């Protein structure tokens, strides 16, 4: 039997606490991007398969909604402990199917686990309020209740962390969940499903439907799905928002980004260079919070470019399981697309300071992997495609401007508003920047300003469709809905009722 004939695992769906094969018969290959080898095949759900998974979530909802907060949090704590003990297993799965290096994969799992820990405090987060005697003997209280079955449509770049931005809070709040992971790396979500079962989550509360647009479209129109959380590109985020809301659903759709880091003349250039390398090339640039534009202000550009180039040239690209600094891109087509942007930038007049095209990867059988090395472009202008488009690869563009005002105008004119950063030693400049910049998440001498779980994650402008961000207090509000109860009880003494209290004659 040749290597190409070796049987590969078929990854099914997960419904009502067990594997669900579905009936479509359609599958797609799952590939290790470090080697190019097909390691599995994932089921692609039909509309009917998706309906069956949703039905499992619907059937489980009444009992889970009515489960006590003590029971829900007990399951969450169990899940947290199991995940903490076995997170290296999940990180290995992420590396094998996504390609990111082990340290990145483990960090992804750890950041997702922060949301699990936040959701363990759901008892406090769901507390309502009450006002007594708003009118004579009339009390008013507010409570928050679960929505019902909710859907999470997750991207390929964070197959563990992004679903964990949403499902811990939804489950803690009393909702049931259907996750649609990327068909490129579905195994992490299936592993999580089995861990929930081990933690004692009732069957049907956490479900997985694997598939492509067919499954997505069914979730967006299915009447039993009450809310949809999505992370992906801006065109698809807009589509998800428009279709989902037109069918009466609550939708939070997080889209793309073009994140800038402004480096002022007084900045620590070594700190800035280290940060730009980490934020630009970590996870091979396949993250919505990657810094893809460095805005050099004043006369520091030559020094900054030199420091970044020196660090970038020292990075090892190869199999993420083999101790390198940067792994492959998710598919060959995407690697070719990223390379084509570098070609276009060079043709438009950008200077290719560090060239990742044709990089020689290291570590294992990597000749057929999907690689583009760290790439640094200088003299980039705002009309070049390497600046205007979200490349989603390890390409860092340097734009030179004369002043802070020019840098701010550049950031604010961009269609995206996800994340940004400023490097400076001047507190006044930093304070002015955080006030004036039109971006949802800001870092000050911090390269990737991803907030911790008890704050909320999300951008502005074309980076977010919907008005509710992920996790934190906004996440709790997204997965619950408010109810106000107005109550009047007549005083029993006025009705001549003997309450049976002891009396002393």
Major beta sheet, strand line-up: 15-16-17-14-13-19-20
* CATH C-level of the largest domain: Alpha Beta
CATH architecture of the largest domain: 3-Layer(aba) Sandwich
The name CATH uses for the topology of the largest domain is Aldehyde Dehydrogenase, Chain A, domain 1
Gyration radius over CA = 25 Å
Number of strands: 23
Shape: globular
What is the helical fraction, as a range of percent? 25-40%
CATH superfamily name of the largest domain? Aldehyde Dehydrogenase, Chain A, domain 1
- Tell me the domain tally: 2
Please give the alpha-carbon distance between the first and last residues: 98 Å
Structural class: alpha/beta
- Total of DSSP H or I helical runs spanning 4+ residues: 15
The parts where pLDDT drops under 50 for at least 5 residues are: 1-6
- Tell me what portion of residues adopts beta-strand conformation: 15-25%
Kindly report the average pLDDT value: 95
Largest sheet: 7 strands, mixed
What attributes characterize this protein structure?
Aldehyde Dehydrogenase, Chain A, domain 1, 7-stranded mixed β-sheet, 38% helix, disordered N terminus, Aldehyde Dehydrogenase, Chain A, domain 2, globular, single chain, alpha/beta, 505 residues, 6-stranded mixed β-sheet
């Amino acid at each position: 039997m040749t290597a190409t004939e070796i049987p590969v695992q078929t990854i099914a769906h997960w419904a009502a606490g067990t594997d669900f094969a579905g009936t479509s018969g359609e599958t797609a290959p799952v590939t290790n991007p470090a080697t190019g080898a097909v390691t599995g095949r994932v089921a692609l759900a039909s509309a009917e398969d998706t309906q069956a998974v949703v039905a499992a979530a619907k059937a489980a909802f009444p009992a889970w909604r009515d489960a006590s907060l003590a029971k829900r949090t007990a399951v969450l704590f169990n899940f947290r402990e199991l995940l903490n003990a076995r997170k290296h297993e999940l990180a290995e799965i992420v590396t094998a199917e996504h390609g990111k290096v082990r340290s990145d994969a483990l960090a992804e799992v750890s950041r997702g686990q922060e949301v699990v820990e936040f959701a363990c405090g759901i008892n406090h987060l769901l507390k309502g309020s009450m006002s007594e005697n708003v009118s004579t003997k009339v009390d008013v209280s507010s409570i928050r209740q679960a929505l019902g079955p909710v859907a999470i449509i997750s991207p390929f770049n964070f197959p563990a962390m992004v679903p964990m931005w949403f499902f811990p809070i939804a489950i803690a709040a009393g909702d049931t969940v259907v996750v649609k992971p990327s068909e490129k790396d579905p195994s992490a979500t299936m592993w999580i499903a089995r861990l929930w079962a081990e933690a004692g989550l009732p069957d049907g509360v956490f479900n997985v439907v694997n598939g492509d647009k067919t499954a997505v479209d069914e979730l967006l129109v299915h009447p039993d799905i009450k809310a949809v959380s999505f992370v992906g590109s801006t065109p698809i985020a807009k589509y998800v928002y428009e279709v989902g809301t037109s069918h009466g659903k609550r939708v939070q759709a997080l889209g793309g980004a073009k994140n800038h880091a402004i480096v002022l003349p007084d900045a620590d250039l070594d700190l800035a260079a280290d940060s730009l390398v980490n934020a630009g090339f970590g996870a091979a640039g396949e993250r919505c919070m990657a810094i893809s534009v460095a805005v050099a202000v004043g006369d520091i550009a030559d020094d900054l470019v030199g420091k970044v180039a020196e660090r970038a040239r020292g990075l090892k690209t190869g199999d993420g399981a083999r101790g390198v600094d940067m792994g492959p891109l998710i598919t060959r087509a995407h690697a070719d697309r990223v390379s084509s942007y570098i070609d276009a930038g060079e043709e438009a007049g950008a200077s290719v300071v560090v060239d990742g095209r044709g990089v020689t990867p290291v570590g294992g059988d990597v000749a057929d992997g999907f690689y583009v090395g760290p790439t640094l472009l200088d003299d980039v202008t705002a009309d070049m495609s390497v600046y205007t488009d979200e490349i989603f690869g390890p390409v860092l563009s340097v734009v030179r401007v004369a002043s802070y005002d020019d840098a701010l105008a550049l950031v604010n004119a961009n269609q995206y508003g996800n994340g940004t950063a400023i490097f400076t030693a001047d507190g006044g400049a930093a304070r002015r920047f955080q006030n004036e910049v039109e971006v949802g998440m800001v870092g000050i001498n911090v390269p990737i300003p991803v907030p911790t779980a008890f704050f909320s994650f999300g951008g502005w402008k074309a980076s977010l469709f919907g008005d509710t961000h992920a996790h934190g207090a906004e996440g709790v509000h997204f997965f619950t809905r408010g109810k106000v109860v107005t109550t009047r009880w007549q005083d029993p003494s006025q009705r001549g009722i003997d309450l049976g209290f002891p009396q002393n004659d």
